């Protein structure tokens, strides 16, 4: 860490982690793009990083506080785990609840949304003959969960997989698809619904889908992994039965920080994946006490939201990222002849965009072909984005965050043209 930078922590030793606050000096007027990248993140300036959506990256001010918490824990581990940690987590939980419009009593921390969805699906009291609904746009690990759950764990439960094909030109199209599948399969008891699909980056009409599910006596479990920090949230108003989101994606938390929110009427059947000391206590206590784990990413969630607000909050951040994402799309279409995903503008994610790649010789439109092309493009290079196979076409998915600017995409254009030229030359040898 650059010792010339001002300290970012105000701590009073007797209060420990409760007193570690983010120093927001200089954040209000900081310029997005290279200035915030160089001053506030540890990203390699020689790397063109276009994939914030997968793992995020943590501001250096947050890492400063993370280091202080690590030191506090190591100075007296028992005091940390037995006395202080729960107080720190509870304060952070209240801050996250305020940010997403939820009651903190109904929030528990988990390491990621895959854990959250696994938890509620494995806990739900399905009866033989019941069905579970996911879609072809569900995140890969969730699709695998639904397949595994209904084939190995509960083979007496049916998996129903809804096909949502492109073009997706209106939310009415999506709603009609759900209406049809729920009518056709009245045994569906639980629907897993993405708030923002991944990797296809559709902002789903979740409020209407929740209402539709409830009118059909179906519980709505919302996978909002990409939601917090990217779109406005009011969980209480949404009316879902379960909601999960990753604080470590668009809200700057260290990796391994997500929340599971549940409507309190479901508390009786939800159980953590791990049975531990607090079995039989409140869900808050049960999920907190999951053996010896690293709670520090959870503790830091409130500081990360402070950072998010200090640099301008959602209105400023999303205005910047939306305009940059659209400018980048225009550039990539013009220079590389890429094609946009056929999606209604009102359903587009602000920070995530997809463009169809031209055919690249030697890389078929298969899962293996995508993996091989992604490896050839990005492994060991100073440029990184991700590729996705959607309806038998290979798409580039890029992410835009406040540390990106249009120069990143100009670099990608040059790099991709060079890659295509070299690929063509190698085939002609």
Overview of the molecule:
The chain has 429 residues and is α/β, with parallel strands linked by helices. The chain has 16 helices and 15 strands. A seven-stranded mixed beta sheet has the order 4-10-9-8-7-5-6, sandwiched between helices. A four-stranded antiparallel beta sheet has the order 11-12-15-14. The N and C termini lie far apart (48 Å). The N terminus is likely disordered. Pfam families: Aminotran_5 (PF00266). Keywords: Pyridoxal phosphate.
What's the SSE blueprint?
Blueprint: E1 9-10, E2 21-22, H1 34-40, E3 48-49, H2 52-55, H3 60-75, H4 77-100, E4 107-110, H5 113-123, E5 131-135, H6 140-153, E6 158-162, H7 171-184, E7 188-194, H8 206-215, E8 219-223, H9 235-238, E9 242-246, H10 247-250, E10 258-262, H11 283-288, H12 296-299, H13 301-310, H14 313-336, E11 339-340, E12 352-356, H15 367-378, E13 383-384, E14 386-390, E15 393-399, H16 406-428
Parallel strand pairs: 3-13, 5-6, 5-7, 7-8, 8-9
Antiparallel strand pairs: 1-2, 4-10, 9-10, 11-12, 12-15, 14-15
Helix pairs in contact: 3-4, 4-13, 5-6, 7-8, 14-16
